[in-house]
## 1
Amino acid sequence: MNTPNRQTIYEKGACVGSGRHDYFFSENPEELAHAQAICGRCPVRLPCLEEALAIGADWGVWGGVIFWEGKTYHRKRARGRPTREERHLPVEASREELLAAI
């Protein structure tokens, strides 16, 4: 893959013009989901994820994936038991799975 350099990612990322940088490093599951939605329309989503995996990102939403204490997640649940609709949805993502995607 011909990966853009870090500067290109920071210039062309959908997060740049979103005005919601706080969502990308929030602890609120709804704000994190909003950040992931912004990533969904990003032209450099995969290079961003690749960069986050390469640098070992500990926190934030990178390429549509939540990094929390060095672990990767598809989504972040609110505290308490999952709802019936959420029970079947995956939460944690393996780095191998993510690397295979990029």
## 2
Amino acid sequence: MPGYTTIIADVTLEPGVSVARHTHPGIESSYVLEGGGFELPVEGQPLRVIRAGDAFQIPPETPHAGGKPPESKIRLLINYIVEKDKPLVKPV
């Protein structure tokens, strides 16, 4: 799609490390490969607790993250379809 790029990332969240609240300039689609019990606050949605086997999407420019840090390692496969030439992550 003109003006957009796709980024695929294998992301590991270490136990006790929090993820700062942020946005992306496009859609984030994620699948939890490993771990569980990670809180996922997404603005305008009920708080979710994600576990291995769960999938979720974050709409463009929607603030998310900032929940309770995971107690165990979490591994995510993340697919971003975002606008080119914009930073992938913007703190909120």
## 3
Amino acid sequence: MFTGTMEIPKDQVLVNVSTTNNRGFTPEEVAEQCVKKIISVSNNTHPALRDQAQAFSNHIEKVVAHYMKQAIRSDRTTVYNAIKDAGHPELAELIRRL
């Protein structure tokens, strides 16, 4: 039998729930969630370093959103071509226009 222990920090948010209403998340919203998981700065950090980290975080959020948009466009191209190749050019055109 395996037994183990794990210490859970009491001052850290471990679970976060986000929802939307009648839509999926935008690339910007997902990028914000992503950056929050990657970059964190303690409240006790020197203000100058905290400001610099926040500026870096804002920049990375824009970069992640940009590449997510590119990935979405690329995936739509793949879906468009697959549907068109399957003999449904009208449906493929509707997908392309999304």
